[in-house]
Amino acid sequence: MDPVTLRTARLELSIPTEADVDAIFEACQDPGIQRYTTVPSPYERRHAEEFIPRVAKNWAMDLEQTWAVREGAVLAGMVGLYRLGTGSAELGYWMSPGSRGRGLLTEAARAVIDWAFADDGLGLERIEWRAVVGNTASARAGRALGFRYEGLLRQALLSPTARHDGWIAGLLPGDDRTPQPWPVLED
């Protein structure tokens, strides 16, 4: 599939390019991104350089779809659909430290979810959210997006250095996206 550009009130979501390498490298120095995502740790500039062609290849092969989240000229983060197959996918994301706390992630992820469920998009029947146990910021975002908490996956999430217990939640096209209580979040 050719890359798709999505737009929201404040954001453009488009395929990352070579011009994003410095911003990706800088953002991925964040300990939280290294702790809670699958980016290499330590994260070297070559990782960002290798990421760009891999994203394009994955789009072309219908394996994964990753968007750079842009607020004007600023690369705010990445959001994508991973583990694509038989009507389902997993939503994944990270935001650069300077772009957190302003609702940009949920705005971007809503656009991806809407497109993924749409008949003129992917027409998915299910989207999953997963996070390493303890990643409450990601859990709050997942809940805000309307995902329903489904449970604990023991030692199911593999990072470059270890296996981790993970939380899992799901979203179906017809779900009411009003945030529901999650037992792993106290607020």
From TrEMBL:
Q: Which domain of life is it from?
A: Bacteria
Any one GO CC term of the record: cytoplasm
Per UniProt, what is one Pfam family of this protein? Acetyltransf_3
Q: Supply the InterPro entries for this chain.
A: Acyl_CoA_acyltransferase, GNAT_dom, Ribosomal_N-acetyltransferase
Annotated coiled-coil positions are none
- Write the record's keywords in alphabetical order, separated by commas: Transferase
Domain N-acetyltransferase intervals? 11-173
Q: Which GO terms describe its molecular function?
A: protein N-terminal-serine acetyltransferase activity; protein-N-terminal-alanine acetyltransferase activity
Task: Please report the name of this protein according to its UniProt entry.
Answer: GNAT family N-acetyltransferase
